[in-house]
Amino acid sequence: MKRRLFLKGAAGATLAAPFLASLRQPSAHAAETTAPRRMVIFYTQNGCLTDRWFPKVENGALDAAALTGTTLDGLKDLTAKLLFPRGLSMYPRGQYTVNGTAYFDPHDQGMGSKLTAAPIDPTGDHWAMGRSLDHVAAELVNPGKNGPLVVSVGNAFANVKGILSYKAPLEPYAPETKPTNVYSQLTGLFVDGGAMTEADYRVKRGKSVIDLVSADLSTFKRLNMSSADQQRVDDWLALLRETEIQVVTAACNKDTATMLGITDADVKSASGGGFGVDLATAFTLGGDMMMKLMALTMMCDANRSIVLQWPGFVKFNWDGIKHDYDHHGLSHRNGSAAVGGTCVPGVLDSLNQIDNWYAGRYAKLVNLVNSIVEGDRTMLDNSAVMWLPELADGNAHNNNNLPIVIAGSAGGYLKQGVSVSLDSTKTLGTGNSEAGCTPEGGDVTFGTGSNGGNVPLNKLYVTLLNALGAKDEAGAPIQTFGVADSNDPVAGITKPGELAELKA
Amino acid sequence: MQSWDKRIFIAAALLAGCQGNLKGSGSGPGQGNGATGNPGLSGGGAPGTGVQGGPSACVPGVPGTSQLPRLTHTQYDNTIRDLLGLQTQPSTMLAPDTVGSVDQRAWDGYKLAAETLSAAALSDGTARARAIPCTPTGDGAACAHQLVSELGARAFRRPLTPEEVTRFEGLYTDRAALTAKGTFDEAAQLIIEAFLKSPSFLTRAEIAEVPEGQYFALSGYEVASRLSYMLWSSMPDDALFAAAKDGQLSTSAAILAQAQRMLADPKARSMVSAFHDLYAHMGPGTRWQGYTRDPALYPAFTDALVPLLSQETERFFDYMVFDKHATFQDLLTSPVAFVNASTAPIYGLSGALYGADLAAVELDPAQRPGVFTRAGFLAANSLFNRSSAILRGAFLQKQVLCRDIGAPPPGAESTPQPTEGLTTNRARTDAQTAGNACVGCHHTLINPTGFALESFDAIGAYQSNEKDTGAAIDTNATVALGTANVNVKGAGDLMQAIAKSPEAQHCYAQKWVQYAYQRQPNPADACTVENMTTKLTQGGYTVANLITDLTQSQSFRLRAVGSEVAQ
């Protein structure tokens, strides 16, 4: 049954949360009357069976038939709100050198370079050498300039293979993995029954604690410290001043949470799982709860830049799927991290099961966001919910001709109901994921990728930033994103600008 | 696993000087020894001369360090356990450990944890009794004062200044405006929340500025924290606070006595276990997790075996260090193993003799000396359907001998192993690595080291013939140990040789210094490492001796301001 949730009060009506008035002049955002626009990135690893994933129309209007029988069959009734930008490729990738040193690992690049469009450091921990899209977007469009909401389902590796978000070059930003933490931080924003005034004890309490913490830090400031330590103290003091400000909507309350299926008990039972503990709970209940919390975050307008990561090294054992090998091993076709050899029997069916499972989660998220009425539209119409993959085909480890879909038009900025081919020189095709393996086994072949589809992903990101309403320092639309848009990290951005073909 | 730990261990392997002395140009001049003459290592011994009798004289120094290192997750959890009696793993609310500035995510995590823990401290009867040392009478101000002074001193790990006491008492005075109903308990909760959000709680602040030479001497309370966080990953206990209060932590001898007491406490065991997890590259996110083996070749392999093989290794290290008072050499050569019904068959023992719990056994010391011939290490460093001489050899060279081998060229790991006309894994491995870019490191350093362990298959069981071809397995090899080339007949010879080698001892000492001091190899710590290496080589120097000696260096008692060494 489809329920329509309403944002209480006028569209975008905001209420000042605890510390706004006392610490800062009311900002222009408090008077905003149009709905905010948000970007949500749904990120999966190990690629997919691309020939089953892409819609049947490569360049043109979409109808239900275009998605029927594909991995995204579950969204065939919502094609009017979908956009497939075809022919995109992640850069930089492949074998390049940085300062004379070479390092190549397609998974490290697939993670590190995907949202940064920067090379990864060939030395040390191989962190990305750029700032990621979610942080850039958060800084430009979040009213409190707070950082993005980055979550992962289950646990996440605290290394380059588990990190998607970078707050600065070489500074990884780890995802939140516990639904309880996301929930607790949201409940702290809840307004129950009306605006919070200065006289409220919670306002004064917060100020008092900040005063004590600042006094503690000020004592440190008086010491004869290294410049690195002085920086740490200054940064902490700055954080106290800036981030206690959070403007939320009238809809940000416990009733809304309950309507979304988020209660203390629900959150607790969804948070029990994790790697090595109970992955099934993490992926089923935990994943669902994360998506609901993301919807609540959007309804609270607590964050307009959201990333949901699904880890890659997992063995599926839920929702009717029971595999003997983990997803990564299956994507290599041979059941292990090695390359080549013999296909695991039935591996394509196993991968198809996984792809369908993720497609189901994506559809659930899209439908949830679409079920929330926002003014004369839905919250989906005011957002861009993008399914972005680590790789195109997991065996070929290729990052061209990427399977990407965007649901929602970000407030009417993006085209809807179409697949747009950005590489007009030839037919892109759907790749060759099913080559080599047979139901009984077969030999793994390296020809499972595809050719063509090399328009830089950077340009899609520029388009998305503009769709969110971001502006550069001069107040003009964004022109470039990332460090490089080719396989030469030094060449920089050679093709600036957004993708006009995607604009409504 | 804490991210800084991994960084330290990866860097250690790449430091070219790891095999011998670090020529000290140091961050502190040689006169830093000051009045004590020598760094005062237990058991005497002059400050380090070169281990191999070559270029000598490391220059002792104290490296620049941050005065505000934040509690790591482990330290946070343990500190809350000891401070408030709550064992709820609150670090799950925190952002991952970093050494940089507190950012949005980190601050949100600290706030959430402080609010959650302070509420729990008041709602749990036992915790409340522990946190609030008195029963409020009259207006409650006297008890509030006592709460602030006593709990504050434990939370900040030093007495509060009069200004701090006044500030925190102010929360009590203003409780009507700051809490819902203005009760004593609500005010107490607010005070605890404020303590837990304070940098003086969240960091192990080193702020005393008493000069000693060109360094600063740590205060007694700061030394107490160094001791407790190094050995227990937690706050000082009452005995340490009392010793600090009485000014008794200013000499190396007194510090050593405390360290010995603390190492005997059960709280020290997890620190030693965590070190050896890192030493063996065990733990979450490593090769020791989540592997499978070919069911056709290893029908007895199950997923349940994997964690058991980590546990047998951890039991081994714990038993050797604490029960057997082992030396480093013992770790590599002891015939002790821990088995249960599932793992016994791997060692050729009958599973029927054992239950579900791990029990100590003695294996053949010629075939199975030490931890690197145990199934845990061997199985983790294998592949789906065969042993891996490359993984085992590379690990021993890089992580046990600290040899700088560098990274393989891009794409090397996908080089297929040729099998045509080659009947042993050994021959196939050499063929796989015969290319120009590979042969230098592989044929001289990596492969031979691994070939000596070819008598153990992909689950660590003994094998004398290849499973697929039946060909006999040859484990004779010429292994490079530092500058020497040693002929070994197999695993037994190899482990004896590594255990004696100066490189392996230096490597072990270096890793302990890095782990205990939480910083990368640097010239200022070189003498500490050299001194320990000398003692390790002389024999009779247990791992426990080494650990307590970590408190005897200059840099344990003094700090330097300036460019920080890498962490």
Q: Largest contact between protein chains?
A: A-B, 60 and 62 residues
Backbone shape of chain A: globular
Seen as an oligomer or otherwise, the chain set is heterodimer
Beta-strand percentage of chain A? 5-15%
Tell me the strand order in the biggest sheet of chain B: 1-2-7
Helix percentage of chain A: 25-40%
Number of helices in the DSSP assignment of chain A:
14
Rounded mean pLDDT score of chain A: 88
Tell me the β content of chain B. under 5%
Contiguous uncertain segments of 5+ residues of chain B: 1-55
Mean pLDDT of chain B: 88
- Contiguous helical run count of chain B: 24
Low-pLDDT runs of 5+ residues of chain A are: 1-32
Report the major sheet of chain B. Answer: 3 strands, antiparallel
Helix content of chain B: 40-55%
Rg from Cα of chain A: 23 Å
Structure description:
- The complex is a heterodimer of chains A (504) and B (567).
- Chain A is an alpha/beta fold and 504 residues long.
- Chain A is 30% helix and 14% strand.
- Chain A has helices at 20-23, 50-53, 64-67, 106-112, 133-141, 179-187, 201-221, 227-242, 254-259, 264-270, 279-300, 327-331, 347-370, 457-467; strands at 5-6, 14-16, 38-44, 60-61, 82-86, 88-89, 97-98, 101-102, 149-152, 165-168, 171-173, 247-249, 305-309, 317-318, 321-322, 372-374, 377-378, 383-389, 405-407, 418-421, 437-438, 441-442, 455-456.
- In chain A, the strands form eight sheets. An eight-stranded mixed beta sheet of chain A has the order 4-20-5-19-18-3-13-9, sandwiched between helices. Chain A has a three-stranded mixed beta sheet with strand order 1-16-17.
- Chain B is 46% helix and 5% strand.
- Chain B has 24 helices and seven strands.
- Chain B has helices at 3-14, 73-84, 104-123, 125-131, 141-156, 162-173, 175-178, 184-197, 199-202, 220-231, 238-245, 252-263, 269-279, 305-323, 328-333, 375-380, 389-400, 425-432, 436-451, 491-500, 502-517, 526-538, 543-549, 554-557, and strands at residues 210-212, 215-217, 336-339, 359-362, 477-481, 484-488, 558-559.
- In chain B, the strands form three sheets. A three-stranded antiparallel beta sheet of chain B has the order 1-2-7. Chain B has a two-stranded antiparallel ribbon with strand order 3-4.
- The longest helix of chain B is centred in the N-terminal third of the chain and has 20 residues, at 104-123.
- The radius of gyration of chain B is 27 Å and the shape is elongated.
- The interface between A and B is large, with 60 and 62 residues.
